Description:
This protein has helices spanning 2-37, 60-67, 106-109, 123-126, 134-140, 173-176, 184-190, 211-221, 231-234, 236-274, 276-284, 289-325, 332-335, 346-368, 376-382, and strands at residues 40-44, 56-57, 72-87, 90-99, 112-115, 129-133, 147-152, 158-168, 179-183, 197-198, 200-205, 226-230. The protein is an alpha+beta fold. Strands 1, 3, 4, 5, 6, 7, 8, 9, 11 and 12 form a 10-stranded mixed β-sheet that branches. Strands 2-10 form a two-stranded antiparallel ribbon. The mean pLDDT is 87.
Amino acid sequence: MRIAIVGIMLGLGVMILSVAIVKGFKREIQQKVRGFAGDLQITKFDNNFSYENTPFKIDPGFEHLVKGDAQITRLMPYATKPGIIKANDEIEGVILKGVDKNYNWTTFRKTLMAGTVINMADSVAAQKQIMISSYTAARLKLKVGDDFLMYFIQETSRKRKFTIVGIYEVGVEDVDKTFVIGNLSIIQRLNDWSANEVGGYELQVANFGERAQAYDSLNAILPTYLHAYTIDETYPTIFEWLKLLDVNAQVMLILMVVVAVINMISALLIMILERTAMIGMLKAMGADNWRIQKIFLYNAAYLIGLGLLLGNLLGVGLGVIQNNTHFLKLDKASYYMTFVPIELEALDVMLLNLGTLVVCLLVLMIPSTLVSKISPVRAIRFK
């Protein structure tokens, strides 16, 4: 009996933690990527796949239509341009991403390791400010407040001097190793664009889970010279990996339910065999098979309930402790973060409890039919 209870406790505890960890991973990574690149992106429709954007002019009418869509919460112009940073006798190739006052710094601020974000309120100062990743800062031995020259290779080579105001760590290798953040007007001047020309738009949606619907709505109003795509297409490797996590969680849930069911079947069979004489006596007194089966199923339900209670204490307890202390660490190079993230939801815990209880009781109907095979005469004689 104790082994059966412990089996259910461990099974439910592992299931709760599995779902919470997978959801936590997805939430943390999605927020990191979304905070940097938005949920949807718009660029000019052409064959240019480089980091040197093809410009297009801002269309106030189109912007008004996009902002009027309830599914889209923010529209942010941007542009990118390759460059080379030279500092402390070291050089590093990076991509300058230029943003303007519409950029949403809320999520990005959470990734700051030092300093602050660019002060877009001061247009003059913002043109000299830049944010770099902790990876780039370590490579070039730079810190907040340092200056460096950045070279842009084009028909006429140009260079600009920047001051570091912030050092961030998104935790996504493709971002940290590649991008630095600056003012959009810098790229406009370097490329001799007009003030109303941009390299693209980044859009944020109200509900990330409904980004596909927002993408369809956007395509309905998109001019023919523009092309839209989702964050899944921008970082396909990351989002394919997240899908694999869902598969891993599903396999784990199935295995844990199977373990719990096997434990309970074993416990129920032992109970029936130990109470053979009692079953014979009840049958001799006129009890039918179903009435006797219910006795054992009620007892099994009690054991399952006790196991579920202990499993909730184990799973939810460990989840809360990890969420508050982050005592379980991860290799950031492989998992994009330094600790195991947890996202506990009451509905998930309730569904796991209900599902485990229902599956176990339904499966236990099969071994409980052993009661009908017991003969009263033989059972009493065995006694």
